[in-house]
Write a structure and sequence with these properties.
The chain is an all-alpha fold and 143 residues long. The chain has one domain. 69% of the residues lie in helices and 0% in strands. Bound molecules: zinc ion.
Length: 143
């Protein structure tokens, strides 16, 4: 199983050709920025390894208690490392907490915004890269 540094390096390395392609395709600056921030955030703070006391989990510092229920609910490398349910559970969990905190703090109910799709694309791609890397490197070790 690759360690957190390997995951960080692979994700960061993947971001270079993605950004190059986006610039080549004349994607606007705001979209590139939102995508990049989301991708980097998901790489460093929302990986599927939130299901254990991983480095990513510890990066949340004092706020890591937010993810204790997620960590305790999911067995390591099971649902959080499923290519479909992994991103849905991680992003859905974080989105639910953000919506709840915003509502409790201000009474505002967050509404859908088209830019959410860009955030989603960045996060999903970072999480999928982690899952695929885990699967490929685990297969390699078994041989
Ligand atoms: Zn993993």
């Amino acid at each position: 199983m690759p360690d957190y540094q390997t995951h960080d390096k692979i994700n960061t390395g993947l971001l270079v050709p993605i950004l190059t392609s986006m610039i080549y395709l004349n994607v606007d600056f705001i979209t590139i920025s939102i995508f990049t921030i989301s991708f980097v955030f998901a790489t460093y703070f929302l990986s599927p390894d939130m299901d254990i006391d991983s480095r990513v989990f510890k990066r949340w510092g004092l706020l890591r208690f937010i993810f204790c229920p997620y960590r305790d609910l999911f067995k390591h490398r099971k649902l959080s490392h499923n290519v479909i349910l992994g991103p849905i559970s991680l992003i859905g969990y974080l989105a639910a907490i953000i919506m709840l905190v915003v509502y409790l703090a201000s009474g505002v109910i967050l509404e859908y915004d088209d830019r959410f799709l860009i955030v989603l694309a960045g996060m999903v791609l970072a999480i999928e890269t982690h899952i695929i890397t885990d699967k490929l490197m685990s297969k390699k070790k078994k041989k």
